[in-house]
Amino acid sequence: SYANATYEDKFNLEDRLYISASSPELYKMLYLFTKKCNEKQVPYFYAFTPNCGRDENIVIYSSHDMLDDYIRIFKEIKEQNSDVVEKLNPPPLLTSPIMDFIGYGSHPKTNYNKQEPESYNSIRSKLLTVAITRGIIKYCLMNLNTSVMLNEKEMSLKQALASFIERKLEIFLNLSTHLD
User: Fold this and answer.
1) Which residues lie below 8 Å from residue 84, measured CB to CB, with a gap of 6+?
2) What is the pLDDT of residues 103-151, one digit of tens each?
3) Cβ(40)–Cβ(73) below 8 Å
4) In the chain, which residue ranges form alpha helices assigned H by DSSP?
5) What is the pLDDT of residues 25-84, one digit of tens each?
6) Residue 167: which residues within 8 A CB-CB, separation 6 or more?
7) Residue burial 16-43, b: 16+ Cβ < 10 Å; e: rest
8) Following CA atoms 78, 81, 84, 89 in sequence, which dihedral angle do they give, to the nearest 10 degrees?
9) What is the chain's mean pLDDT, rounded?
10) Taking each helix axis from N to C terminus, what angle separates 64-80 and 23-40, rounded to the nearest 10 degrees?
11) CB-based contacts of 9: which residues, under 8 Å, 6+ apart?
């Protein structure tokens, strides 16, 4: 579900604030945030999904210019409604925490091949996959002669990797001969 204030200008989507809340707090936070925005005449645009099984179920879309206004609003909410804020979950793992209950993420740009932008978590997951893969490759290259145990036999990492690749190749070749 999406909600936005009534204003004419298009919202410049550059940033996102992520909040994770259970159902009662989800609706309380949305009410408090909407009420504060209306009181201060601050436009808003957010999406929420109750009971979605995600790390975040409230996403507040923002421009760079609006970000400070939203942070001030959330500080006020925290000061005036600590009972609600205390029950919120920590920010989602792949976001940058800016308060103990809010995570920050940049708004993804639209892909050339897609109409919709990739999700923030999808982009971060791909970056983590590349970083971990590069780290593993670097470690292996720097430690090819290190002794490791494979199937209760001591051998160099280089021999263990070769053995692993041979087994995978053997499995692949056996599967491909059955496809003919």
Assistant:
1) 25, 28, 29, 32, 77
2) 998 876 655 455 666 666 677 778 888 888 899 999 999 999 999 998 8
3) yes
4) 23-40, 64-80, 82-85, 120-142, 157-178
5) 889 999 999 999 999 999 888 888 876 566 678 889 888 888 999 999 999 999 999 999
6) none
7) bbbbbbeeebbebbbebbeebbeeeebb
8) 0
9) 83
10) 120
11) 43
DSSP assignments along 129-155, one per residue: HHHHHHHHHHHHHHTTTSEEEETTEEE
Q: How far apart are CA 19 and CA 10, in angstroms?
A: 24
Note the pLDDT of residue 160: 92
Cα distance between residue 5 and residue 44, in whole Å = 5
Residues 6+ apart with CB under 8 A from 87: 21, 22, 24, 25
Find out whether 113 and 101 touch, Cβ atoms under 8 Å: no
pLDDT tens-digit series, residues 151-162: 899 999 999 999
Quick count: other Cβ atoms within 10 Å of Cβ 12? 13
Length of the chain: 180
Question: Shortest CA distance to 32 belongs to which of 87, 86, 81?
Answer: 81
